[in-house]
Amino acid sequence: MKRWSCFGQTSASAYRHASKVILLGALLVCWPALARDDSKISDAEANASAEASGRTIYTHYRAIEAVRVAMDADQTMRDDDRVAGEITLGYGGQIHVTVLDDASAALYRAAVSTDGLLAAPIEALPAPAELSSNERAAAQARTTALAFDSPRCGDAYDTVVLPSSVEAQWVVFLIPRPSQGAVRLGGSTRVETEGDVVTAWRPYTRSCIDLNPAPNAVAMIVTHLLDPTPTEIHVFWSLWKGKPFYVTTVKNGLWKVEDGRIAKADD
User: Fold this and answer.
1) Which of 25, 61, 148, 260 has the highest CB neighbour number within 10 Å of its CB?
2) Is the dihedral of CA 166, 169, 150, 258 positive or negative?
3) Is 44 among the domain residues?
4) Residue-range definition of the domain harbouring residue 52
């Protein structure tokens, strides 16, 4: 039985159709992170994949942040030093956030809409609870990715864990925690896992790049050396900051990332 039934199996054709999915709300909840082989896809396919993945990362990250804000407003939750991190699962049109302890047991649960709003008060479990099979797999992927010796920029990292288009695999996005309005582009990493094994990984930059756009800045700009097109991380950060992101690539020149979409800047 498949782990995720919202889209069934995802094939290479998903790259071609990602930008044409009508049910965007469902797409943001449970769109699987596609296993990447960029040498075999066109720029248009890469852009469609980056758009879908970047929007999904943003939706899940925003759900985690909504839970953190609500917990911070509650003194008991705020002072709970058992909290070690979060995982998310998308189903039923919502993002379901599970707050974990160091042993990957559930401490709190919450459902968040795709608009980033809590659907109900956070549920504080009376005792650390065993995870479901999907939650265990996601928690294992998170643990595996965090333990992997990839280049880091700072110590504080957040994770977004998504099911892969490859059966029994997961994709973990390691994202340096935003601070003081900075865009922590450097140090962001994509890690693909199966059980406790890393099957593939990639960084999104070659150095620890922090962008500090002024609050009134109309856009952000960066030169990207590792890909011919912008990536899901550029899409994520553009959505997170609510600003267009101009990305210059060596092969294809200037791109504009805005509202979860990628286009040539002169289109």
Assistant:
1) 61
2) positive
3) yes
4) 13-212
